## 1
Amino acid sequence: MIKNTLLLAFTVISSTACANIAGNEIAPTYNLKSNTRGLFIDPVTSDSMEQVNMLLYKQWYFTKVLTLDGKPDMDVNSCKTLLKASNENYKTTNYQAKSILKDFKKTCSTWRDMGKLKPSKESFLSSFKHSLALPKQMPPELSLIISNDDERRLAKASSWEEMSHIKKVEPVNEGQAMYYDNSGGIQRLTIMAKGDYNQDGIEDMVLYMENSVEGGDYYSSYSYIVTRLAADAPYTLIKQF
Amino acid sequence: MMKYEGNVPHMYLDTKGYVTVGVGHLLKDVEAAKKVPFIVRDTGVKATIQQIEGEFKSIKAMPWGKKYEATYYKPFTTLVISEAVRETQVENHIKTFESELKTIFGASEFASYPDDVKLALFDLIFNLGMPKLKDTFPNFNKHMKAHDFKKAAIESNRKDVSAERNTYVRNLLANAK
């Protein structure tokens, strides 16, 4: 009897605890508007999970024609067609189109991963803020790496700041800021989404970085998934692409 | 330059959000834009200061980034510059790049480099800008100053630049006579 009562009590407490956790789950959030203009005729107007999943199929306002020897040309006008063309080794000979499509492919891959975000049980990202302090907390992979010398320094660095020496930060909007380093590097960092990517219950963050330089036409872009395992811990890199 | 930067007759925003025209000719502010001899695309008539100012401001307010090709801005423009103006701009850019390269490597040192090496340096500074080339390629610059162009060729590699463009520069340096 005592045993059954204890079992019942344990079951009730356990169920309540589970219910509380479920009730306190943090839903994924997305910032689509600032990263989707320029691709679509109809702008993305809501930052919802449904919109994220639609982005891969949504038609761009323009079409790029890619070629492959011995095959008919392929019209690329959405993430879906770009990823298909890329998998089949279709190419463009135009230098600028090549560079743009490479960047689009990263954006499409980022959206694909954003669609995989799950609700989190816990978050240490609430104190995130674009500021001069951020590069000290972020992994060195966020830095602008161009030369072989940069690559060699990256192997030993422990933070973005150690690599880049950020001297100025200019907010663009709530989720986006420009970071200027002391050697002509200009980086635009955008928060794309938050949610649990690696399913450890802790909220992760999807970031998009566009790199350029003062006085030159250099450009590169990267997406990162980072997390923070404690309120005062540095950000940890989960994935870069 | 034209191959890598494009040749655009109307105003557009580059990947940093700066208003640009021609072959990557940056218009720092509205005053800089007013000095450029724009013409009205449809009539060929010289644009007024007010037209240039209005177009500069409307383009500057638009979104920017790699996703926005120069052609994205075309429907929002009415002003263009002629081919001759674009060519003059390119010549002026080359003069600026030469001056910057002389600052980095020294005027007499730069003058002593073989033509192929100079071509390679022009591509590098056009792509990287002077601060990045000067500050973040120490091993490349060390080999250049030692006239060891074969070692400089290896260090000329730029991450995320196309293999074609990296190979072009590497070969110019590695085969320099």
## 2
Amino acid sequence: MQNETLTIALAGNPNSGKTSIFNKLTGARQSVGNYPGITVDRKEGHFRWKGKDVRVIDLPGTYSLTAGSPEELIARNVILEEKPDIVINVIDSSNLERNLYLTMQLMELGVNMILAMNMWDAVERRGLKTDLEKLEFLLGLPTVKTVGSKGKGITSLKDAVVGNRAVQTSSPWVKGASTPIKKAVSVLSAELACVNKQHCEWKAIKLLESDREVQKQEDESIVGFSLQLASRLETQRGISSGMLIARARYKYIEQLIKQVVVRTVSSRVSRSDRIDAIVTNRYIGIPIFLVMMYLVFSFTFTVGEPLMGYMEMLFKFIGNLVSGLWPAGSDSMLRALIVEGVIGGVGGVLVFLPNIFLLFLAIALLEDSGYMARVAFIMDGLMKKLGLHGKSFVPLLVGFGCTVPAILATRTLENRNDRFTTLMVAPLMSCGARFPIYMMIIPAFFPQAWRAPLVWIIYLVGILLSIVIARFLRKKVFKGDETPFVMELPSYHIPTPVSILRHTWDNAGEYVKKAGTVILAISVILWVLSSFPRKKQFTVDYDSEIAAVTASELPAELVTDSVTVLENTRQMEAFTYTVTGRLGRFLEPVMEPLGFDWRVTTALMGAIAAKEVFVSQMGVVFAVGESDEDSSTLREKLRENYTPLQGLAMMLFALISAPCVATIAATRKETESWKWAMIQLFGLTILAYIVTLVVYQVGLLVT
Amino acid sequence: MRKTDSTVVRLLDAPRDTPVEIVGINGGTHMVQKLAAMGLTHHVVVRVMRGGGTGPMVVEVRGSRVGLGQGISSRIMVRPFFSDEVVAN
């Protein structure tokens, strides 16, 4: 049996160090996928040990195995359907009582199991004398001491796996449960059809817990019978049968622990409690958090800024390199497609990669240390007033950097209604790419003293709108009970560099993948729309004009300036002829009540590719040379053509309207449907239209 | 058992740093199971480490710290627990 492949699954509580055990077991041989239909990551890896190939499935971290959350259901279904040869239950050994609750439920499933007694160093440090031999004997399961973060005990764990030391389990607590429960379980399981006795018992327990998934699979008569038994239990004991069963599990665990753990140190105030006394303090908790976030953003931007410059240079270099493959002055369509469409489009998104990587790095640090759980905690009161969950806060905050990671970060919200509400309003947080737009417009129209307050107002408008929309969505669309806020505040610990980097890389990789697929496709489409049909006959013979200027005896500086103007004028003429250009003109009557002419309209359409494209597109339509947000010629043009009120309208519309392509792609992926991506796209655009219309029209009346 | 209604209060209103025993949870199957998974069951003794005030509260239960929102802590009923008592089954 040398080439036999073993399949093992890792199960455990969140914060039990399961991920570090998984990483230490499999090294770099991992792959991340998705379970169909929901966005729970499916992580798999491999290792080879003593001639055996072992496939490792990392189940989602869960506290129990009910049908109530997608993670728990997935964990359970993988065990039931894929039937791994061995389940390794990773346990935080310093917190046996709560961790063994999941163990009880895994044992009910009758799996072959090994207990990885993780964080064993914390047991010793905290003076919890734990008799492992006794635990093995009482539970009838093999145990292995591990310290995942330091890689300790991994070889013994591998030995236990390939040495097939796993033992088939059964529900140990049932025998010790009170007679009515024991009776109900045995009576019900006798009525069920199943693979073996343990499977019957599991189904009976689940039915008595009113488990919806198991109820669905059984006959109505059986379900009816189980409900009858459950309500009888309830009237006998005055507590729901689900609670009675949970209580019976804990009762068994309590007795087990009494025999296994001897507490030698009784200090209850741990280091974590001392930190919490400060960071969750009612008065200074939020200020501390704001300082942390300030540090995160300044780290992201100060370190990221130069790196972003290098990325820009890199893409420019690649563009030039590819351009060079064609003879100078060639008019190849393929070249334009590759350089402008592909490299320009994907490059435009990838230049943000350093910033995104750094932001994820900082977030991974806060998350792995345990601080992020506290953030959700201290912000819950405030977020609840806004119709959201405490955990919505971090994704929305990330949204001020970039909407794409914000949408990915909504994964931390377990409840679909909370998650979708957060995801739908995330684009209203004014992201970094919208900043150049404000930086171009504000100095063009407004005196120095107004500038900073105006930026604030724009950001504030986004925040206020998100509150209004979130409340509306939560009340009308994503209805349902307010999710109970229950979360563990894990002990703080110092994260290891390896786990931080891996965590960051997993998230940043997601962004790169997106840039390579959806964004690539949409960039090409947008490029085609703004390049075709091509104009052959121009009103002016630009080439000869340029030649004439170049040949003239004007000062060199003036010559280059005139050439740029001529080239840009030609570019604008060509652009007006394209689909986008025509669409701009076509939409002009619709956009006019907002104060936008066709030029602004086309620039806004360009902003769908990426928000900051608005600036360069305005440069194109106004036919000025190199344009960025600091361009004074562009600002002069703006001043000549528009009023400050129109400037304000542009900023508002750019803030609220159509999220960028990357966001649309992220929403599509995270909601697993085009429907929500489209609702977000059109909903926000309509909202932008209404808000801008009101502001502009009222503004016209007032001024 | 000294279980008189006058001493039963909502967890939300329970005093800090005083052991209290959970005697009732008003909620559906889903909520009960979610709470049970975090260790919050009938007859378990918990200790409020940080009061709710305007935000969530923190309780110590079965060796771990759990944050609870106001909505949920107002649906958990507790009574004072005296260490000489034997916890009811």
